Amino acid sequence: MKRILFAFILLLGLQVSAQQHFTESIYKNKDQKTLTYAEKEGQKLYLDIYEPENSFKNRPVFIFMHGGGFGFGSPRNDDEVQLAKTAASYGYVAVQISYRLTRKDQSFGCDFEAEGKINTFKLAAEDFLDAVSFIIDNKEQFNIDPEKIIIGGSSAGAEAVLSAAFNQDLLI
């Protein structure tokens, strides 16, 4: 009877432990890595990768694009860095993406024509998809499961991510 009780408690403990992944901050973060995923128009586009220490293989990946009106901003601003570090502490591989800032020192407001806006969305969505392809192509290096990808963005980054995910006609 003691053996059965011991086995039950052991299995219950393993089940509870398995449920902590991705729902509790139980991991320390590795040092952030920066890799170039593309070079376009003479500009190197990079990924900042945040990983948990001592976690398992085939981890889910959280890919995020920063905001900034397509003209400024960085994946290294304090809020994006904290978001990535928090995701990694929960067991996710977190990736912050840089992209071409095609509207740098220019307006993206009502005074900017629709055709230019469409092209801006297209280029940012293209950069996003290139970054995702790079991550998937290097899945072994990052120990990620390409079937478990979470995407997100802030402001302009969110518009680019949504364009890439839901407006495939834009990319033709």
Overall helicity: 40-55%
Strand and helix order:
HEEEHEHHEH
User: In percent terms, what proportion of residues is strand?
Assistant: 15-25%
Number of helices, counting only DSSP H or I runs of 4 residues or more: 5
Poorly predicted runs: 5-19
The structural class is alpha/beta
How are the strands of the largest sheet arranged? 1-2-4-3-5
Biggest sheet layout:
5 strands, mixed
Question: What is the 3D form?
Answer: elongated
Give the N-terminus to C-terminus distance in angstroms.
Answer: 67 Å
Short description:
The chain is of the alpha/beta class and 172 residues long.
Describe the structure.
The protein is of the alpha/beta class and 172 residues long. The protein is 41% helix and 22% strand. The protein contains 5 helices and 5 strands; from the N terminus they run αβββαβααβα. A 5-stranded mixed beta sheet has the order 1-2-4-3-5, sandwiched between helices. Helix 2 links the parallel strand 3 and strand 4 (93-97). Helix 3 crosses helix 5. The longest helix is centred in the last third of the chain and has 24 residues, at 114-137. The protein is elongated. It starts with a helix and ends in a 6-residue tail after the last helix. The model is unreliable at 5-19 (pLDDT under 50).
